[in-house]
Amino acid sequence: MTVRYHWRRGGLAPDYVCQRKGIENAESICQRVSGAEIDRFIGAVLVELINPITLDVALAVQQELHAQLEEGDRLRGQQVERARYEAELAQRRYMRVDPDNRLVADSLEADWNQKLKLLADTQQECEQLRERDHKRISEEQRQPVMQLAEDFPHVWRDPSITHRDRKRMARLLIEDITLLYGDVITLHLRCRGGAEKTLTIRKPQLSWETWTTPTEVVAEVDRLLDHHTYGEIAALLNERKLRPGRGERFSSRIIARIQTCYSLRSRYDRLREAGMLTVTEMAERLRVNPKTVKVWCAHGLLKGLRYTDKGESLYEPLDDPPRKQQGIKLRLRAASTHIFPQPSKEVQYAT
Length: 351
Description:
Blueprint: E1 2-8, E2 11-18, H1 20-25, E3 31-34, H2 36-49, H3 52-96, H4 102-133, H5 139-157, H6 163-173, E4 174-181, E5 184-191, E6 196-202, H7 215-224, H8 230-239, H9 252-261, H10 267-273, H11 279-286, H12 290-298, E7 304-306, E8 313-315, H13 330-333
Antiparallel strand pairs: 1-2, 2-3, 4-5, 5-6, 7-8
Helix pairs in contact: 3-4, 3-5, 8-9, 11-12
């Protein structure tokens, strides 16, 4: 996989891309992994691993292994001596052959050449292994290594350090990283000193996914629509310190967009399914003007539930609806909806 960088939120963000098929066969990219979260985890692991205790233990282990390497060097020296003895033995056999017997002489010469080649290969391999194994850390080198453990966290977190410099440091410390990409991302990290660590992190969100409202908030909006308007829901969610996908606070417009985007039933539809009536339907049932329905609702004669923040309401039907009663105040009629007879007025005519 190769790395690509793009500009996000004021800085460069990496993406790890598998584009081999795209380069060779002009096919689409088969895999893309957002690398910002992965880089943060790997940086934290490196800071955790590079500390005085772990470096001190690593140096002590290396000194312990040095004795074992010397024993291995002695065994390899014995292999060289054995190869040299076999080469000398093949030489003596060749030198004793009768020159007139060309068939035997050619066979012994080929065997001698083979033994000489084996001796040269064994000596070369022994020298390479000896040079690799005898890189022992002295006390003068030990102090700078231990100082690195104290300086490394500051250097790694320094904002002035470029991505290129961090990658160079990572190459010096990390042997390889195996990444398994699925529902979760599994990272198997192998350091050059032999330390290994396996990490499991959740899949990083795509850019558009960071703008979406969390599912638990959508479920809460769906529940609150049974009893509240958009503005009331926004106020309740802000009181609970919940946040939308984009923005710092909820508003009536954001709640309306959530209801539409996630195909939630509106409060109007919920009240209609519960049998609530519109102001026109209620006025027709009571045989009064729609304004009268609103006045009666304001004084408690009718039960109305708002479905918008503008005060629009739906009304609960009544088995015993109120009636117009001349001369009785609405506050008294709210307590009793019986019709009281009106006193007759006597009219006196002048004689």
